[in-house]
Amino acid sequence: MKSIRYSTILAATLLLAGTALRSGTAVDLKVGDKAPKFEAMDDTGKLWKSADHVGKKTLVVYFYPADFTGGCTKEACSYRDDMTKLQEKGVEVVGVSGDAVHNHQLFKKAHDLNFTLLADTDGKIATAFGVTTQAGADTVMATNGDQKEPIYRTMTIDRWTFVIGKDGKIMSKNTQVHAAEDSKAVLDMVGTAKK
Q1: Given 35, 66, 72, 155, which residue is catalytic?
Q2: Would the pTM of this model clear 0.85, i.e. be above it?
């Protein structure tokens, strides 16, 4: 009798846990939805909170797979090159990947990036936005001055871009990002939205 009760309780617990897990990973934010609040360590090693930024400017949150990879470098450099135009339109940009703070520091220095990078090493921010993640260790070589050094990551995040309006709602969601054109697409979207 006890074993039957235990089996029933165990089965019910597993069913509930499975449902919770599925619902936790099935976020599907749409344009007009309230953006989730989030926080993470930035590339200076300080805690960055979305609550301190949303409402002040239009906030671009772009998720990318990894520092020091081809497409991600093109995307970051396009945001760097378009930063003056973006700022003129009242836009703030943050890049989010599964890289650690140290990786972001090297990446930012190597490409003279002029915006914040957030370390989403456990994928919590990506999950809150419904962005697909993949756990697993990976190593790439990074240039640090005249030296090459390996950098490690344990989380890879898909390339998606969200634009959050001053009202805290999603203005745009792009799940089919063309890395080198992402900043231009955001500029076009923000320019159209302002008219």
Answers
A1: 72
A2: no
